[in-house]
Amino acid sequence: MTDDEVEKIIWDEFQKRDVIYLDMIGLPNCGVDPDPEDNMTTKQQRIRSNRFSEIMGSQRMKELLCAGEYNPGEDCPPLKISFQDLFRFWWNRCVVQEYVVDEVLEDLFDYFTALMAPPEKKEEGMDMTIDFDKMPLFPPGLEQAA
Length: 146
Description:
Helices cover 43% and strands 3% of the residues. The chain is mainly α. Strands 1-2 form a two-stranded antiparallel ribbon. The longest helix has 20 residues.
C-alpha cells in the first residue's frame, strides 16, 4: 500500500464518521458544535457529542482504523492498515527523520554502554535473612497450650 493509499483510507474514515477538527481536539462525551458560524439555529440545537470515545490521539486512531467493532480494552486491535504501512507513512510524512535517527542512535549508545559497564559492587547492608528454626512459633507461655 502506498502512502497516498494510506492517507486516502484515513481521510475516508474521517468522512464516514463525520469527524471534524473539534472532534480531534475535544474531549470525549463533550459537546461539539459542528457549525459555530451558523446564526440561524441555537448552539443547543447544533451541538452533538464527540465522534471519539477515547482521549489520547493514539487510542483515537485505533478507534478510527479498527477493523470491525472497536473494543477499548484491546491494546492492539486489528487495523484496516498494516502496521508496516502505517509505520512507513509515519516515517515519510509525520516525523522529522533526523530527530528520530538521533533518538534511535542515542538509545543504541545507552544500551551498549550499559552492557560494557563493569559489574556494580554490591554494597554491604543490613543482614535481612531470617532463620525460622531459631524463631519460636508461639510466644512464651503458649507453647504448652499448643
